[in-house]
């Protein structure tokens, strides 16, 4: 039963009760210029005091528009921010975007959902901001209610968090996940990028080592091949072609307490990472309805050093 009083709805379905003490996430259906909010089965009201006041703060977007082909000129200081595997970790995404707030162009390599406590602001930000994006295996699994193709120890974590995330995301975000392409080719300043999640060939579930990525992408007509999925960054140049995995923003497997990403600035690719408030992410998991064993396993991965 809803508590007494009215409800006001913020952007992307974030809802705050008029009492000012609690909030909930509401599913939203948009049609004919109106928004209809649907109550999620089993939905509960949570005291706002248990959530950070900055948790849902909007992040800056790119300085450029949404064109898929842009010419910046030879002397451009154009900066591309490359993100992958955010996995509903909003504090990590906030830290990256704030550290690289002067980016011109945003590429996203897939996997917005599963594992973390905050799928809605993460999906909303990428949906509104990314210039180029592709679907990850977890995005596909949640959007179409199918298996994620993970190894067994991560599959259990994925199944638990996915069932929860499906109750949190508004319909507009589910539709976005369904519509994401598997591969993308884009040209920026005359430089050709080929973008996919796991394999340059478009297999969402392939776990490829760097040498295998090079082998799979050697015959693709592009200057730079971008992949994610493994949560382990690498950067190589083979026969004049760049192969890059930025690692994971939300759940790195090589270093805890940091969000991994990459930038291409003035034509130079670079792997980077930034520390973030992992305790905020942990608080979100502990306040969630997830089983305790799932929460503990996710915390172990988040703080791994």
What do you see in this structure?
The protein is an alpha/beta fold. The protein folds into 2 domains: 1-50, no CATH class; 69-278, 4-Layer Sandwich (Purple Acid Phosphatase, chain A, domain 2), CATH 3.60.21. 27% of the residues lie in helices and 25% in strands. The chain is built from 8 helices and 17 strands. The protein has helices spanning 90-99, 119-129, 137-144, 152-168, 171-179, 210-217, 278-286, 292-302, and strands at 7-9, 14-17, 22-25, 27-31, 34-38, 46-47, 69-70, 79-83, 105-108, 132-133, 183-188, 191-196, 224-226, 234-238, 241-245, 258-265, 268-275. The strands form 4 sheets. It has a 6-stranded mixed sheet with strand order 7-11-12-13-15-14, with helices on one face. It has a 5-stranded mixed sheet with strand order 10-9-8-16-17, covered by helices on one side. The chain has a 4-stranded antiparallel sheet with strand order 1-2-3-6, with no helix packed on it. α3 crosses α5 (171-179). The longest helix is centred in the middle third of the chain and has 17 residues, at 152-168. The chain is globular and about 50 Å long. The termini are far apart. Mean pLDDT is 79; it is low at 1-57 and 63-75.
